[in-house]
Design goal:
The chain has one domain: TIM Barrel (Alpha-Beta Barrel). The chain contains 12 helices and 8 strands. Helix 2 packs antiparallel against helix 11 and helix 10 runs antiparallel to helix 11. Bound molecules: 3-hydroxy-3-methylglutaryl-coenzyme A (HMG) and magnesium ion. Magnesium ion binds next to loops.
């Protein structure tokens, strides 16, 4: 019988990936309340925002404000995305605990997302990595389009593994293998993760799975079977990438928690509080969470529905 990890680390990306694609600007105080609620639920690692061009991603333009106004908890790592030195300077000024650098296994996606090739993204990383090391700032690297590209290019497990290996060699503590458009299925996920695990330690691999085709939980199970227990997820299943046509939300944190709890895998996060947080942000956005678990537990937890406003 397969043995699974007994603990898992959730990296909550709702305040960044979750909201970056929203058309209406979300007020800073709502983002701050969202972050507070996530932390109160027991989240210990979260993306608070992104120091990227406000012309490219207007929704993240208030990241400086967010970082200034956060009511921080000692045990929590507040991360931000930084594509270049300008972003890194923002991260340092904002006292971020860690940063996420991002590249892709797809050349076309990288061009659309950060306006450079995969090789050029590594050239851009170099000064950021030097500065991060000098400042003792831990960093993760995300590899987008690891299970498929929105532009129809073939992405092979070997390609993903090669980008992950290069990224890990920079000194990243973790490589986040991302299914940007949620197209992966479990056997492919296993093949990609096995290829990556041939190049870098299993402990340094996390998965970041958008749930566009409803495959994310099955793919997380494939990751757990390989001993990979670091999962990015987004409360209420919010999310999407403005530069990945067709990409919908990340796997919902509450769906992941329900599955892990059922498997006896501890995350330290309170499922009821996460479900309440999902309905809080969904209430603000005026639409129900996409999460099946949030919907199933709404009545049990007597949660008022204000999502139709
Ligand atoms: P560029 O045009 O090549 O860069 O963009 P540039 O250096 O020529 O700068 C252009 C303008 O942006 C200048 O301003 C810079 O000052 C400004 P202007 O002179 O035109 O007024 N700028 C910045 N402003 C604020 N913060 C910065 C910054 N850098 C430059 N850090 C750049 C290159 C990377 C900046 C741009 O392409 C960009 O910001 N892209 C946004 C990418 C992004 O945020 N995508 C979504 C997040 S990634 C994601 O969702 C995937 C993930 O979830 C995993 C997955 O699911 O796959 C992580
Ligand atoms: Mg994403």
């Amino acid at each position: 019988m397969t043995s699974f990890p007994t603990i898992a680390r959730i990296f909550e990306v709702g305040a960044r990936d979750g909201l970056q694609n929203e058309k209406e600007q979300i007020p800073t105080n709502i983002k701050l309340e969202l972050i507070d609620r996530l932390v109160d639920a027991g989240v210990t690692a979260l993306e608070a925002g992104a120091f990227v061009s406000p012309k490219w991603v207007p929704q993240m333009a208030d990241t400086k404000d967010i970082m200034e106004k956060l009511s921080r908890k000692e045990a929590v790592s507040y991360a931000v995305l930084t594509p270049n030195m300008k972003g890194f300077d923002g991260a340092v000024a904002g006292n971020a605990d860690e940063i996420l650098l991002f590249t892709a296994a797809s050349e076309q996606f990288n061009q659309k997302n950060i306006n450079c090739s995969i090789d050029e993204s590594f050239e851009r990383f170099a000064p950021v990595v030097d500065a991060a090391k000098a400042a003792n700032m831990p960093f993760r690297v995300s590899v987008s389009c690891s299970l498929g590209s929105p532009f129809g290019e073939e992405i092979t497990p070997a390609q993903v593994a090669s980008v992950a290996k290069r990224a890990y060699a920079l000194g990243a503590y973790e490589i986040s293998i991302a299914d940007t458009i949620g197209v992966g299925t479990p056997v492919l996920t296993r093949q990609v993760l096995e290829a990556v695990a041939n190049e870098i330690p299993v402990d340094a691999i996390s998965v970041h799975l958008h749930d566009t085709y409803g495959q994310a939980l099955a793919n997380i199970l494939a990751a757990l079977e390989l001993g990979i227990n670091k999962i990015d997820s987004s409360v209420a299943g919010l999310g999407g990438c403005p530069y990945a046509p067709g990409a919908t939300g990340n796997v919902a944190t509450e769906d992941v928690l329900y599955m892990l709890e059922g498997m006896g895998i501890d995350t330290g996060i309170d499922l009821e509080k996460m479900v309440r947080t999902a309905w809080f942000i969904s209430g603000f956005l005026g639409r129900p969470p996409v999460s099946s678990v949030a919907k199933a537990l709404k009545n049990k937890f007597n949660i008022d529905d204000s999502t139709s406003c």
